[in-house]
Design brief:
Layout: E1 2-11, E2 14-23, E3 34-39, E4 50-52, H1 54-62, E5 66-67, H2 69-83
Parallel strand pairs: 1-5
Antiparallel strand pairs: 1-2, 2-3, 3-4
Length: 84
């Protein structure tokens, strides 16, 4: 199954997550098909903390990709921010 989830990168105590499309059998930080966004939980107020390529997200969901619970929460948050 294809899944859209977060892959952790960044330094110790400074997490940074890439939102990736991958096979569910791959490791969390392993191989992925496409990077469709990022999430920076420790971003300063002037920095962008979340970005999602909504066109690519829609494409993958139409082709059967499932969102992880955390990715779904972030996409919902991003969509609300874009609508405002």
């Amino acid at each position: 199954m294809v899944v859209i989830r977060l892959a952790r990168s960044g330094a110790k105590k400074r997490p940074f997550y890439n939102m990736v499309v991958t096979d569910s059998r791959n490791r969390r930080d392993g191989r992925f098909v496409e990077r469709i966004g990022f999430y920076n939980p420790v971003a300063a107020a002037s920095e962008e903390g979340l970005r999602v390529a909504m066109d690519r997200l829609t494409y993958w969901q139409q082709n059967g990709a499932q969102l992880s619970p955390t990715a779904a929460r972030l996409v919902k948050q991003y969509a609300a921010k874009q609508a405002a």
